[in-house]
Amino acid sequence: MSRNGALIPESKQALQNFKYEVANSLNVDLKQGYNGDLTSREAGSVGGEMVKRMISYAQNNMNGSSSMMR
Question: Which of 1, 33, 48, 61 has CB atoms 3.0–4.6 Å from 5's, for a disulfide?
Fold first, then answer.
């Protein structure tokens, strides 16, 4: 597997859709393809918000499985 390859290939499209959903909610004009016209702040806000939402989702869905992480 390549270094940047997805462990679950089907997740690639889901993450792309998630990225566009987050960008839309932040009013960032993210287009398919080249987005070099975005500011660093805009691009970073999309990535940061994605991470924030993924962490929140994971925390809300742990259901006591945190004991397995010890």
Answer: 1
User: pTM surpassing 0.70?
Assistant: yes
Amino acid at 52: K
Within-domain flag for 37:
yes
Domain for residue 6, yes or no? no
The answer as to whether 4 is a domain residue is no
Nearest residue to 54 via CA among 30, 12, 22, 31: 22
Q: Is 46 a member of any domain?
A: yes
Band (pLDDT 50/70/90 cuts) for residue 65 is low
Range of the domain at 47: 11-62
Q: How far apart are CA 35 and CA 12, in angstroms?
A: 18
- The count of other CB atoms within 10 Å of the CB of residue 46 is 20
